[in-house]
Design goal:
CATH superfamily: ComB-like
Radius of gyration: 16 Å
Distance between the termini: 26 Å
Structural class: alpha/beta
Strand order of the largest sheet: 1-7-2-6-10-11
CATH architecture: Alpha-Beta Complex
Number of domains: 1
Order of helices and strands: EEHEHEHEHEHEEEHHHHEE
Number of helices: 9
CATH class: Alpha Beta
Helix content: 25-40%
CATH topology: putative 2-phosphosulfolactate phosphatase
Shape: globular
Largest sheet: 6 strands, mixed
Number of strands: 11
Length: about 230
């Protein structure tokens, strides 16, 4: 199995990945998505663009919208912001989630033509590795979405390192990777407690390894990407 890395915000001159693509957004899109599925959501529709997401909400049954703008603030007009700890208190049984965020969702749309596509975060890392291994992937590309001009993105790199180590069969303890999530540039903003829409509870949840026992494959149904 061959491994490679791409950084979402450096894609201009990078070749496309077409085998197995794992788009990682630990803080917070795909931690939020995992929580939504664990809380009973039927499906998640990742949509790039706030207006497109709100339009889709009117065309599916039992919709709930989750949205955030760059920096993590809740998107206006959406039912929930991108806060996994908040969703832990919500019953989403049978709901269809429309999600629009600044990084993770954009990564899924960018690589929608991959043979196998996964949304991933630390809370479902081991299950993601097991799904990739079961599918028999030859090449795995990890897409790092959290690196920006003011953020090192190491929370996503740490998750990629952890999943890759599991796929290589290396002896792997998750604690060191969890610590990297906490001390990443973005993780420190949650720890500081000075950003009202970046609660410490979100970081504490996102840094829990393998909290959920399911992967999040992404498939194209008609013209929409769907996570089930």
């Amino acid at each position: 199995m061959k491994f490679s890395r791409l950084f979402l915000n450096r894609l201009q001159n990078q070749p496309p990945a077409t085998d197995t693509v794992v788009v990682i957004d630990v803080l917070r899109s795909f931690t939020t998505a995992a929580v939504a599925l664990a809380k009973g959501a039927r499906a998640i529709y990742p949509v790039e663009g706030l207006s497109q997401a709100l339009a889709l909400q009117g065309g599916i049954p039992d919709p709930v919208s989750i949205g955030a703008i760059g920096g993590g603030d809740p998107a206006p007009g959406f039912d929930f912001g991108n806060s996994p700890s908040h969703l832990m208190q919500v019953d989403l049984t049978g709901k269809n989630i429309v999600m629009s965020t600044a990084a993770g969702v954009r990564g899924l749309q960018r690589f929608r033509q991959a043979q196998r596509l996964y949304a991933a975060s630390f809370v479902c890392a081991r299950a993601t590795a097991e799904a990739i291994r079961t599918a028999g992937a030859d090449e795995v590309c990890f897409v790092i979405t959290g690196e920006w001009v003011d953020r090192d993105g190491d929370e996503d790199v740490a998750c990629a390192d952890y999943i890759e180590s599991l796929l290589r069969g290396d002896p792997t303890a998750p604690e060191a990777f969890a610590q990297r999530i906490r001390v990443s540039d973005f993780g420190r903003r949650f720890m500081a407690g000075s950003w009202p829409n970046l609660p410490r509870a979100d970081l504490d949840l996102a840094a829990q390894a393998d909290l959920f026992d399911f992967a999040m494959p992404v498939r194209c149904e008609q013209e929409h990407l769907v996570i089930r």
